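Shipment paperwork, digital attachment
Item: protein structure file
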Amino acid sequence: MAPDTRMEAPGQPAPHQTNYQDRLFAQLAAAGGAAEVEFGKLAKKSGNSAVTAFACRMVDDHSAANARLKSLAETNKIPLPGGLDEEHERQRAELEKLDGARFDIAYISGQITDHQKTVQLLEWEIGSGQDADLQHFASETLPTVLEHLQLARDIKAELGSQAIADSAAAPTKQ
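Attachment content:
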């Protein structure tokens, strides 16, 4: 346990305290969740129905999770970031420059990476967090994030197959 952990009894952390692991988890999860909503809104412009459906799901699922996390953070007096962090700002700027299949592949590839990071973050909170409510949130959220990760992988495989088919069907220039 962190040195700043207040104890209710020996070995039992006091409820609703802000310790380092829980604060960091909440802040990173909030930043990632905000990015998922933001990128999902961008991806609604995709011409690919699978990407658009995935983007809508990201906006809905992550908006709900973000609201729940915000409530827990307020209870624990954990300040959350107000917008996107630098990494996600760069990703958004790159996505805004793309369209068509290039956008779809970049968006889905980013979703795979971000969801892999989120899985690790949730598992870390489950194992290292001290606030039972935040650990419970992480435990309940993990299956949904794993499902998102699998969906993104499936869509990327579909996009890759489609790109191969499109290149095979394209006339060759001599």
